[in-house]
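Curious: can you check?
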Amino acid sequence: MDKPVTHNQHPDIPPKITFTIIGIDDNDQQELSEQARKAIAGGLVFSGGKRHHEIMRKYLPDKHLWIDITVPLDRVFHQYKEYSDIVVFASGDPLFFGFANTVRKRLPDAVVSVIPTFNSLQILAHRLLLPYHDMHVVSLTGRPWHEFDRALIEGYGKIGVLTDREHTPASIAGRMLDYGYDNYIIHTGEELGSSTETVRTLSLAEAQASSFQHPNCLILERTHERPRPFGIPESEFELLDGRVKMITKAPIRLLSLAQLDLRSRHTLWDIGFCTGSVSIEAKLQFPHLEIVAFEQRPEGERLMKLNSMRFGTPGIITRIGNFLETELNSLPAPDAVFIGGHGGQMDEIIRKVSEHLLPRGVIVFNSVFNSVSDQSRELFTNAVKHHGIILTGTQHVAIDGHNPILIMKAQKR
């Protein structure tokens, strides 16, 4: 098949590519607008997923060129650059977590026009007669769990979820039940717009035990509010061998999080997490955070899992073993670090942290006020100075009959 010709009067200047992106559903008989029909009739180069080609083939000119949208996308966009005008088919609204956003990001100089139809979550809401103006939307299509976990913790009344073959309604329901979010029912829509369309309303337990046709999407509808504690009492955590002294007390925990200024941060590293209390409290109060928690004791893995499930904080990344021997390059770089234990290796820990801490990032360390801990305070002070991090403040806090705590904060330039 001959390729359509791209005319470029100035061969040294790359031409701008014009994209017309048409939203369709899964119906084999498309109800196309006049604008969409004109774009198709005047087109020669078309693109979309394999399913889109199956649906639209009968509407396309006989001598058309089709570019499959498959990963890796670099190959797809390399093909696009050979042509000046491309008609792309996408599911639903191409600007709703859709391909139009990808085009604009990768080819910011391209000329893009969009002819949308309803997106899948709108169609599902219509089938259910469910108002959706107050629905919070999360995409799990090729994405990690983070934004979904955040939506659960924040407790939205309605959560619309775009799925993929890994993040299925069954796996989503299972994750929710594991972390105690049984306060939702789940509405699912499978192959919406097709002749085999299926819409179901299920309990989470029913959804976890069910299978679903792909593509699908779902809407979670809250049945009741789930408690979201602020300042979890130490007694409610699963403790290390029942040792109450091995957990950061709730008031100290909250003050430490305040010193970390987590509302404006993106990634927290919790070094020496023990029971996980600091990470869990941070995730509950600041669910936008990416949290990575480190603990040398093998028991820490069990404690973090139990306490995270108890208090509903999915998504905390844990690393067990000596922090100084842990590979960190694959982890999100921190702009906030809490040091809960140092094992006499404070300088080495601060050195390693400083190599990854983002500019203006902060470190907080708590030290008990007694003669034994004088050395820890001095170690922290000397270590941050040695590695070019500025000690910016200290707070003395005493709670009941416990030894006073010194909360120390340092900031990278």
Q: What stands out?
A: Residues 234-412 form a domain with the Rossmann fold fold (CATH 3.40.50.150).
